[in-house]
Amino acid sequence: MPSSASASADRYTLYGAPGSGATPIHAALTLIGAQVDTVDIATWESESERDRVASINPMRQVPALVLPSGEVMTESAAILIWLGDRYPEAGLCPAPDHPLRARYLRWMVYLPAAIYSLLWVRDDPARLVPDPSAQAAMLERSAERIAHCWHLMDTQIDEPAPYLLGEKLSMLDLYVTVMSRWTPQRRRFYRVAPRMTPVVRRVDADPRLADFWAARFPFTADHGAQQN
Ligand SMILES: N[C@@H](CCC(=O)N[C@@H](CS)C(=O)NCC(=O)O)C(=O)O
Question: Is 110 within a domain?
């Protein structure tokens, strides 16, 4: 996957944190070969962390990406789609007129709509469920819902060959690989999404991303690459 001259001249600032929704974006920029300055803010940990990103993203969330033009972009799927289109030579998405484009957009939007949005509910349960005694049920049910959404995707996606959209690794593979390490984590994902399992393991083991994973989202016993 060659990096073009224009890609290596482009410089981005990525607000995120290791393991956050900034991770697939950072992985994509690594494959693209663009320069990335990172600002690590673990928004899910505290109000004071969220305050740190408020001037960049009034939603007080990461990821947020400052583009070479100076414009700020938020929304992980939109950023990944935009980067894929901006650097076609990286081959990380089907072109707008490609037969796989509809499938690509469908699943790129499904992930934040059906799954990622539930993380906000879980990150600080008191925001929606003030009664502490009710929070455990909400956490359990939202984890079940996420697992079910992975299962529904798994049953509808074509048999991966070898990636989710066929021969080429795409933004969709990067997105699923990172999100499948979040709650309810890989052990559960492997059970509910057996067709996508070899894909995420393949992306975990991609030699072009080995240094990146080690530095920005090291594998652990809870969501590691080797876990069954
Ligand atoms: N729709 C956003 C969701 C971003 C999001 O939920 N980010 C998490 C971190 S991975 C966050 O900042 N959470 C802070 C909070 O719970 O308010 C996207 O797709 O980028």
Answer: yes
